[in-house]
Amino acid sequence: MMGVFGGTFDPIHFGHLRTAHELLKALSLNEVRFLPCGVPPHRAQPVAAAAERSALVALALDGHAGFVHDDRELHRDGPSYSVDTLESLRGDYPDVAFCLILGMDAFLGLPRWDRWQRVFELAHVVVAHRPGWRVPYRGPLGEILRTRRSRQAAELHEVDAGRIFVHPVTQLEISSTEIRDLIRSGNDPRFLLPETVRNRIRESHCYSHSNH
Ligand code: ATP
Q1: Does ligand 1 come within 6 angstroms of the Cβ of 102?
Q2: Integer Cα distance of 104 and 26 in angstroms
Q3: CB 108 within 8 A of CB 138
Q4: Does the beta carbon of 125 lie inside 6 Å of ligand 1?
Q5: pTM given for the model
Q6: Ligand 1 center to residue 21 CA distance, Å?
Q7: Whose CA is nearest to atom 21 of ligand 1?
Q8: 3 state SS of 187
Q9: pLDDT tens digit string along 156-179?
Q10: What is the DSSP string of 36-52?
């Protein structure tokens, strides 16, 4: 089973990496695939260029068994819809089950996604708890949780797609926004993200024009 972890990764940080690591173990995934998005459809456009964000992801994953960098979304024109990414992965890996990994904040936005119901035909959805977010019990997500939620990770291995699994991960209150703000105001983001990523950001000045 493959974990599919998409994000803006502007930049990637330990909140992302720790979440992926814990889910890799908890769900017995064969790999977690990190897919930086080209053009995010539902949010403000990223600060760093897509190629730079992708290079930072590659650096962060380097040497970590089970973590895979996949930049297919960068080679597609237009917005990076997750459903297109899953269709593309399905074409490449017809026999692999996918777990789309989402933070709770991202999961709450799911009903606004393009063709969001199709996601459940292509993948399971794994929701990683983030600080301050609660499982919805109303609206379209409340309803879909009542019918699709699995309480045991093992159940995800029994069918190919369509289950939702909510899993608490270590609460690291780190966000890319906070890191960008720190850098912009001349502060050091040390210990919030890997050293290799921090060094490259310092050299490329992709979040600021001053050294920190
Ligand atoms: P920004 O601050 O720019 O919105 P972000 O830190 O939320 O960025 P994204 O690249 O937008 O990072 O997130 C990609 C995915 O990772 C989303 O599903 C998001 O919920 C999840 N995520 C981000 N930060 C954390 C964290 N600290 N712990 C767990 N999951 C996280």
Answers
A1: yes
A2: 17
A3: no
A4: no
A5: 0.94
A6: 14
A7: 103
A8: coil
A9: 999 999 999 999 999 888 999 999
A10: E-SS-SSSPPPSS-HHH
